[in-house]
Protein backbone atom coordinates (compact mmCIF):
# COMPACT_ATOMS: atom_id res chain seq x y z
CA UNK A 1 0.00 0.00 0.00
CA UNK A 2 1.68 3.24 -1.09
CA UNK A 3 -0.53 5.55 1.00
CA UNK A 4 -0.77 3.98 4.40
CA UNK A 5 -2.36 7.08 5.87
CA UNK A 6 0.48 7.91 8.25
CA UNK A 7 -1.34 11.19 8.92
CA UNK A 8 -3.93 9.21 10.95
CA UNK A 9 -1.31 8.28 13.54
CA UNK A 10 1.03 11.27 13.30
CA UNK A 11 0.35 14.12 15.71
CA UNK A 12 2.29 16.38 18.03
CA UNK A 13 -0.59 16.20 20.51
CA UNK A 14 0.26 13.81 23.38
CA UNK A 15 -3.50 13.25 23.83
CA UNK A 16 -3.93 11.94 20.27
CA UNK A 17 -5.12 8.29 20.53
CA UNK A 18 -2.05 6.94 18.69
CA UNK A 19 0.32 8.76 21.06
CA UNK A 20 -1.71 7.87 24.14
CA UNK A 21 -1.78 4.14 23.34
CA UNK A 22 2.02 4.12 23.12
CA UNK A 23 2.68 6.28 26.19
CA UNK A 24 0.17 4.43 28.38
CA UNK A 25 1.44 0.99 27.31
CA UNK A 26 4.95 2.12 28.34
CA UNK A 27 3.57 3.20 31.74
CA UNK A 28 1.58 -0.04 32.13
CA UNK A 29 4.73 -2.07 31.37
CA UNK A 30 6.39 -0.42 34.38
CA UNK A 31 3.51 -1.72 36.52
CA UNK A 32 3.96 -5.29 35.14
CA UNK A 33 0.56 -5.04 33.44
CA UNK A 34 1.77 -5.73 29.89
CA UNK A 35 4.98 -7.72 30.07
CA UNK A 36 6.25 -9.94 27.26
CA UNK A 37 3.88 -8.55 24.56
CA UNK A 38 0.78 -9.19 26.72
CA UNK A 39 -2.08 -6.72 27.13
CA UNK A 40 -2.95 -3.66 25.08
CA UNK A 41 -5.18 -0.65 24.63
CA UNK A 42 -7.67 0.39 21.98
CA UNK A 43 -9.07 3.92 21.72
CA UNK A 44 -11.86 5.44 19.62
CA UNK A 45 -11.38 8.95 18.27
CA UNK A 46 -14.92 10.37 18.73
CA UNK A 47 -14.26 13.14 16.19
CA UNK A 48 -13.29 10.86 13.31
CA UNK A 49 -14.95 7.60 14.41
CA UNK A 50 -11.61 5.86 13.95
CA UNK A 51 -10.54 3.01 16.23
CA UNK A 52 -6.82 2.70 17.01
CA UNK A 53 -5.58 -0.84 17.60
CA UNK A 54 -2.11 -2.13 18.51
CA UNK A 55 -0.29 -4.79 16.50
CA UNK A 56 -0.09 -8.37 17.75
CA UNK A 57 2.91 -9.95 19.42
CA UNK A 58 5.00 -6.82 19.75
CA UNK A 59 6.58 -5.41 22.90
CA UNK A 60 3.76 -3.04 23.78
CA UNK A 61 6.00 -0.66 25.74
CA UNK A 62 8.18 -0.08 22.67
CA UNK A 63 5.38 0.58 20.16
CA UNK A 64 5.49 3.66 17.95
CA UNK A 65 2.33 5.44 16.74
CA UNK A 66 3.15 4.29 13.19
CA UNK A 67 2.84 0.65 14.35
CA UNK A 68 -0.88 1.14 14.97
CA UNK A 69 -3.79 -0.14 12.92
CA UNK A 70 -6.81 2.10 12.32
CA UNK A 71 -10.35 0.82 11.80
CA UNK A 72 -13.05 3.03 10.31
CA UNK A 73 -16.30 3.07 12.30
CA UNK A 74 -19.71 3.09 10.71
CA UNK A 75 -22.69 5.31 11.51
CA UNK A 76 -24.26 3.02 14.08
CA UNK A 77 -21.21 0.76 14.44
CA UNK A 78 -23.30 -2.32 13.71
CA UNK A 79 -20.60 -3.59 11.34
CA UNK A 80 -17.91 -3.59 14.01
CA UNK A 81 -17.24 -7.31 13.57
CA UNK A 82 -13.65 -8.29 13.03
CA UNK A 83 -14.44 -9.95 9.67
CA UNK A 84 -16.43 -6.97 8.32
CA UNK A 85 -14.48 -3.92 9.47
CA UNK A 86 -12.45 -1.73 7.15
CA UNK A 87 -8.86 -1.17 8.18
CA UNK A 88 -7.97 2.26 6.83
CA UNK A 89 -4.41 1.78 8.01
CA UNK A 90 -2.46 -1.49 8.09
CA UNK A 91 1.23 -1.19 9.01
CA UNK A 92 3.22 -3.48 6.71
CA UNK A 93 4.55 -6.68 8.25
CA UNK A 94 2.25 -6.48 11.28
CA UNK A 95 -1.10 -8.05 12.16
CA UNK A 96 -3.72 -6.49 14.42
CA UNK A 97 -3.90 -7.53 18.07
CA UNK A 98 -5.48 -10.91 18.75
CA UNK A 99 -7.73 -8.95 21.13
CA UNK A 100 -9.26 -6.99 18.22
CA UNK A 101 -12.55 -8.98 18.25
CA UNK A 102 -12.83 -8.31 22.00
CA UNK A 103 -12.07 -4.61 21.70
CA UNK A 104 -14.59 -4.28 18.87
CA UNK A 105 -17.23 -6.15 20.89
CA UNK A 106 -16.92 -3.58 23.69
CA UNK A 107 -17.09 -0.66 21.24
CA UNK A 108 -20.07 -2.13 19.42
CA UNK A 109 -22.13 -3.34 22.37
CA UNK A 110 -21.34 -0.67 24.93
CA UNK A 111 -20.51 2.38 22.83
CA UNK A 112 -17.40 3.02 24.94
CA UNK A 113 -14.46 5.22 24.03
CA UNK A 114 -11.55 3.07 25.17
CA UNK A 115 -10.69 -0.46 26.29
CA UNK A 116 -7.65 -1.43 28.36
CA UNK A 117 -6.43 -5.04 28.57
CA UNK A 118 -3.78 -6.06 31.11
CA UNK A 119 -2.24 -9.26 32.43
CA UNK A 120 -2.04 -7.78 35.94
CA UNK A 121 -1.10 -10.48 38.45
CA UNK A 122 -3.73 -9.05 40.81
CA UNK A 123 -6.36 -9.75 38.13
CA UNK A 124 -5.10 -13.29 37.53
CA UNK A 125 -4.89 -14.12 41.25
CA UNK A 126 -8.28 -12.61 42.06
CA UNK A 127 -9.84 -14.58 39.19
CA UNK A 128 -8.76 -17.73 41.03
CA UNK A 129 -10.24 -16.66 44.38
CA UNK A 130 -13.77 -15.92 43.16
CA UNK A 131 -16.26 -17.95 41.07
CA UNK A 132 -18.58 -15.88 38.87
CA UNK A 133 -17.96 -12.38 40.24
CA UNK A 134 -15.24 -10.50 42.05
CA UNK A 135 -16.91 -8.52 44.86
CA UNK A 136 -15.72 -5.87 47.25
CA UNK A 137 -17.46 -3.27 49.43
CA UNK A 138 -16.70 -0.68 52.10
CA UNK A 139 -13.37 0.48 50.68
CA UNK A 140 -12.98 4.20 49.89
CA UNK A 141 -11.48 3.64 46.41
CA UNK A 142 -14.81 2.09 45.30
CA UNK A 143 -16.04 5.68 44.97
CA UNK A 144 -13.92 6.02 41.79
CA UNK A 145 -16.04 3.33 40.11
CA UNK A 146 -19.22 3.90 38.08
CA UNK A 147 -22.65 2.65 39.17
CA UNK A 148 -25.93 1.95 37.38
CA UNK A 149 -27.69 4.78 39.28
CA UNK A 150 -28.80 7.69 37.10
CA UNK A 151 -28.72 11.19 38.60
CA UNK A 152 -31.43 13.17 36.75
CA UNK A 153 -30.15 16.50 38.09
CA UNK A 154 -26.52 15.99 37.06
CA UNK A 155 -27.77 14.14 33.95
CA UNK A 156 -25.24 11.34 34.36
CA UNK A 157 -24.63 8.03 36.11
CA UNK A 158 -23.19 8.51 39.57
CA UNK A 159 -20.25 6.60 41.03
CA UNK A 160 -20.55 3.86 43.63
CA UNK A 161 -20.75 4.95 47.26
CA UNK A 162 -18.47 3.70 50.03
CA UNK A 163 -21.02 1.16 51.25
CA UNK A 164 -21.88 -0.12 47.75
CA UNK A 165 -20.50 -3.35 46.35
CA UNK A 166 -18.33 -3.41 43.24
CA UNK A 167 -19.04 -6.57 41.20
CA UNK A 168 -16.90 -7.62 38.25
CA UNK A 169 -17.99 -10.65 36.18
CA UNK A 170 -15.43 -13.42 35.58
CA UNK A 171 -15.26 -15.55 32.42
CA UNK A 172 -13.00 -18.53 31.78
CA UNK A 173 -10.01 -18.22 29.47
CA UNK A 174 -9.77 -20.11 26.17
CA UNK A 175 -6.87 -21.04 23.90
CA UNK A 176 -7.51 -18.17 21.49
CA UNK A 177 -8.68 -14.61 22.20
CA UNK A 178 -11.42 -14.73 19.52
CA UNK A 179 -12.98 -17.68 21.38
CA UNK A 180 -13.74 -15.31 24.28
CA UNK A 181 -15.98 -13.11 22.13
CA UNK A 182 -19.30 -14.86 22.88
CA UNK A 183 -18.69 -14.90 26.63
CA UNK A 184 -17.69 -11.23 26.58
CA UNK A 185 -20.79 -10.41 24.55
CA UNK A 186 -22.96 -12.21 27.10
CA UNK A 187 -21.37 -10.19 29.92
CA UNK A 188 -21.99 -6.94 27.98
CA UNK A 189 -25.66 -7.84 27.47
CA UNK A 190 -26.31 -9.15 31.01
CA UNK A 191 -24.32 -6.45 32.82
CA UNK A 192 -24.43 -3.34 30.62
CA UNK A 193 -23.24 -1.14 33.49
CA UNK A 194 -20.18 -3.22 34.29
CA UNK A 195 -16.95 -1.51 33.25
CA UNK A 196 -14.75 -4.60 33.35
CA UNK A 197 -14.53 -8.34 32.96
CA UNK A 198 -11.94 -10.62 34.53
CA UNK A 199 -10.67 -13.46 32.35
CA UNK A 200 -9.66 -16.32 34.64
CA UNK A 201 -5.94 -17.20 34.50
CA UNK A 202 -5.46 -14.46 31.86
CA UNK A 203 -6.11 -10.88 33.01
CA UNK A 204 -8.72 -8.16 32.75
CA UNK A 205 -10.49 -5.96 30.20
CA UNK A 206 -11.60 -2.52 31.48
CA UNK A 207 -13.51 0.08 29.50
CA UNK A 208 -14.86 3.62 29.85
CA UNK A 209 -16.54 6.36 27.86
CA UNK A 210 -13.10 7.98 27.51
CA UNK A 211 -9.54 6.69 27.87
CA UNK A 212 -9.19 8.89 30.98
CA UNK A 213 -12.14 7.11 32.62
CA UNK A 214 -10.95 3.66 31.52
CA UNK A 215 -7.53 4.44 33.05
CA UNK A 216 -9.07 5.58 36.35
CA UNK A 217 -11.24 2.44 36.50
CA UNK A 218 -8.31 0.17 35.61
CA UNK A 219 -6.06 1.67 38.30
CA UNK A 220 -8.82 1.59 40.92
CA UNK A 221 -9.80 -1.98 40.11
CA UNK A 222 -6.19 -3.15 40.25
CA UNK A 223 -5.77 -1.54 43.67
CA UNK A 224 -9.02 -3.13 44.89
CA UNK A 225 -8.04 -6.55 43.48
CA UNK A 226 -4.68 -6.35 45.26
CA UNK A 227 -6.35 -5.34 48.49
CA UNK A 228 -8.90 -8.15 48.17
CA UNK A 229 -6.17 -10.75 47.68
CA UNK A 230 -4.47 -9.56 50.88
CA UNK A 231 -7.79 -9.43 52.75
CA UNK A 232 -8.53 -13.02 51.74
CA UNK A 233 -5.02 -14.06 52.89
CA UNK A 234 -5.83 -12.51 56.27
CA UNK A 235 -9.16 -14.36 56.38
CA UNK A 236 -11.15 -11.15 55.96
CA UNK A 237 -14.32 -11.06 53.82
CA UNK A 238 -14.13 -8.53 50.98
CA UNK A 239 -17.84 -7.74 51.22
CA UNK A 240 -18.71 -6.44 54.67
CA UNK A 241 -21.54 -8.56 56.08
CA UNK A 242 -24.65 -6.48 56.89
CA UNK A 243 -25.69 -6.56 60.56
C1 LIG B 1 1.82 -13.42 25.87
S1 LIG B 1 0.54 -12.50 25.26
C2 LIG B 1 -0.69 -13.61 24.62
C3 LIG B 1 -1.78 -12.88 23.91
C4 LIG B 1 -2.53 -11.97 24.83
O1 LIG B 1 -3.19 -12.44 25.76
C5 LIG B 1 -2.47 -10.54 24.72
O2 LIG B 1 -3.02 -9.83 25.53
C6 LIG B 1 -1.70 -9.87 23.63
O3 LIG B 1 -2.17 -10.19 22.38
P1 LIG B 1 -1.64 -9.36 21.12
O4 LIG B 1 -2.14 -10.11 19.94
O5 LIG B 1 -2.20 -7.97 21.24
O6 LIG B 1 -0.14 -9.32 21.20
ZN1 LIG C 1 -4.19 -10.97 27.01
Describe the protein.
The chain has one domain (6-233): L-fuculose-1-phosphate Aldolase. It contains five helices and eleven strands, in the order αββββαβαββββαββα. The strands form two sheets. A nine-stranded mixed sheet has the order 4-3-2-1-5-11-10-9-6, with helices on both faces. A two-stranded antiparallel sheet has the order 7-8. The protein is α+β, with helices and mostly antiparallel strands. 28% of the residues lie in helices and 23% in strands. Helix 2 (100-110) packs parallel to helix 4 (181-190) and helix 3 packs across helix 5.
Short description:
The protein is α+β, with helices and mostly antiparallel strands and 243 residues long. The chain has helices at 17-30, 100-110, 121-129, 181-190, 211-233, and strands spanning 40-45, 50-53, 69-72, 86-89, 114-118, 133-137, 146-151, 156-159, 165-172, 196-200, 203-208.
CATH architecture: 3-Layer(aba) Sandwich
List the strand order in the largest sheet. Answer: 4-3-2-1-5-11-10-9-6
What oligomeric state do the depicted chains represent?
A: single chain
Principal-axes geometry comes out as globular
What proportion of the residues is helical, as a percent range? 25-40%
Structural class: alpha+beta
Helix and strand arrangement:
Elements: H1 17-30, E1 40-45, E2 50-53, E3 69-72, E4 86-89, H2 100-110, E5 114-118, H3 121-129, E6 133-137, E7 146-151, E8 156-159, E9 165-172, H4 181-190, E10 196-200, E11 203-208, H5 211-233
Parallel strand pairs: 9-10
Antiparallel strand pairs: 1-2, 1-5, 2-3, 3-4, 5-11, 6-9, 7-8, 10-11
The structure holds the ligand CSCCC(=O)C(=O)COP(=O)(O)O and zinc ion.
